[in-house]
Amino acid sequence: MNRLFWLVLCFIYHHVNAQNDALDSLKQGKFDEITIVGFKSKTIPGSCKYLDMKQFARFNQTNINNILRLVPGISIRDEEGFGLRPNIGLRGTSLNRSAKITLMEDGILIAPAPYSDPSAYYFPTFTRIHALEVLKGSSQIKYGPYTIGGAVNLLSTPIPDSFKGFAQLSYGNFNTNQQRLWIGDQRNNLDYVFEVNRFASGGFKQLENGSSTGFDRRDFMGKLRWHTDVSAKVPQEITLKILHSEELSNETYLGLTYEDYKKNPLHRYAGTQKDLLDMNHQHISLTHNIMSFNGFTLNTAVYATKTFRDWSRSSTFGERTIAEILNAPESLQNAYNIMRGTASGNIEYQSAARIFQSKGIQTNAAYIFQKKAFSHKIQIGIRYHTDQSDRYATRSQYFMTNGTMILSNAGIKGNQENQLRSAGSMAAFASYDIRYKNLKISPGIRHEKIQFTFNNYGNTDNARQGTALKTAINKMNIWLPGIGVQYDFGKTMNIFGGLHRGFSPPGMPLFTTDAQAKPEISVNYELGYKLEQEDLQIQVTAFLNNYRNILGTDNVSGGGAGTGEVFNAGKADIKGVEISVSSRPAFKVSDKENFYFPVMIAYTYTSATFQETFINGGGDWGNGRIFKGDHIPFITPHLLSLSAGVENNRFEAGLTGRYTGLTRIKPGQGNMVLPAKETGLVDINTLDDFLILDVSANYHINKVFTVFTLINNLTNSKAKVASLPQGYRPNIPLSILAGIKIDL
């Protein structure tokens, strides 16, 4: 089969139920945008969750981390306090830069280079997101390449059914502010939506010189859609989507020592005064949908993205690495004082410029038919995808004097890192759903054919003439079968189970022919129960991910040296239980008014242990021997979120609590050693548990105007929410955000 055929047949992620949603809309004379889960979670034989704009509006959150915590099975590591770059793990996958989950926006991969360099330094601005979907279990084999933990699909603002406009303005502590405006309409055969969004803050951390520690992020998104008349024999549509995002953040990798954290958790060292993230992201896609033709549906998309990211930051002080200083500040007093700005000395500074490019073409074809008492769905999908990461890291020198960093040597571009990382993938899946009465069986298979290419030009070949070029190639061919089973008890309740082979690509190859990193492979099991009623939803799932080859990665953002190398760690078991409960009981006050009391509970228990003894090469698992039975670090055993509120026609108010249990930050089986005055950072293996409370409220002045407020961290908790990338990091302190929504 020639390459052109594969290019035309391409692969997308939309579940056939999404097409059914669109067909329901067509019957009403309108076109709707496609979702994977939507409100059809009870038809998917696996664990899934859908949160929409109505729920977002109730919480008024600007931080996606705080919304994702309402979904069981998701682990989050906070970093900068605003959720700009979430560290997300699903069912025990590594949290670092969300690199081990499949991230999508509107069903298209959104990580800057999801195969060759998957760290999600770009993440969509949550304040412009309309809804989100989370898929876990056997049903997510359609949504690779990362199929061990699951997939997260973010849905952008849809084209409305008729003319509609929306504006939101807010302001709060630390000069945190947001401005959002969108308008859209369906006009005969041409529909549109255009949106601008700005989210910015002066930052809550404190530099001695008073400089900003905040950020400014701006987005523009536009969609144009042409569609046939709804009465057409073959209803179809073509949608063009364009997205531009840019950000400047005065953000740093460097946290604090324990002693400095106790004095002031919001302090930032003078050595971070030049740290800066400069990023922009462009996306364009063209999507074609055939909605229904004799039971046949087809969705095809062509897409391209380009992301520039340069995170410039101090890397050594007085010729000592940050890790060395944080581990022993007393014995490295001079380097520590240079970092604080109280002593003079040399600072090595690194500009980590990277250009990511990603493009592909993808298709999903589905056919639905009925034979007597059996209903059938057949889906076939193919995607051809390429991506590349162009990495130029430049090392320069500053001199700290009187608390101010002064440039002393600009350095030569690429003198720290000078690489091209590339990947090409042909992915395909086939699935078959068969239903007889109350029983549904869904077998499927996924195939990934990938080639990784690594070109390292060395730190002296700035022009990339190839004088010291090292090249490595890694190829793989992976088959990933799976099956899901669901049995319905009436229209609102079912039990489900699944078994599938999970996979994560191994990342860049090494410069050898016989020591390439092996893919991360697992066998995943789940068994669950769902209740889906109008005012009560319950989902309970038990899962086991049995790894044959779990992988570790050496990244600075994960506490490593930053080589980017991937380590084979062998067998591991990650198992647990997820519980989700949503309810909205009503209390009738009068014939015209009811009070509602919405409650949401999400609890996750996770046990994660290595099942082999091995020597680890670095990264967030550290160096040295790791033993069979050691706990895998940064996977919190107990996570609990609880939201409770009251609503009527004019107002909503609610309290949300997020509990994070004791979290090991180093592999081990023995006693947990928490931060304490007499304990050095090198000895600490566990972070304290903590509880964060938020309060939100909305008051509807009329059908157009709503005023709202959000109180973050009601008790002003000073919990240490993370020890990565480098040192202890705080949650956003007590703060209030207030604003107005205008809904036309």
Please tag this protein with its features.
744 residues; Maltoporin, Chain A; 22-stranded antiparallel beta barrel; 5-stranded mixed beta sheet; globular; disordered N terminus
Describe the protein.
With 744 residues, the chain is mainly beta. 7% of the residues lie in helices and 53% in strands. The chain is globular. The chain is built from seven helices and 41 strands. The strands form eight sheets. The chain has a 22-stranded antiparallel barrel, surrounded by four helices. Mean pLDDT is 91; it is low at 1-29. Strand 16 and strand 17 form a beta hairpin.
How confident is the prediction overall: mean pLDDT?
A: 91
Gyration radius from CA atoms, angstroms: 26 Å
Poorly predicted regions: 1-29
Largest sheet entry: 22 strands, antiparallel, barrel
Number of domains: 1
Report the structural category.
Answer: mainly beta
CATH fold annotation: Maltoporin, Chain A
Separate helix tally? 7
User: What is the multimeric organization of the chains shown?
Assistant: single chain
Instruction: Count all strands and give the number.
Output: 41
State the shape. globular
User: For the record, what is the CATH homologous superfamily label?
Assistant: TonB-dependent receptor, beta-barrel domain
Beta fraction of the residues? over 45%
| Name of the CATH class | Mainly Beta
**Helical residue percent band:** under 10%
| First-residue to last-residue Cα separation | 52 Å
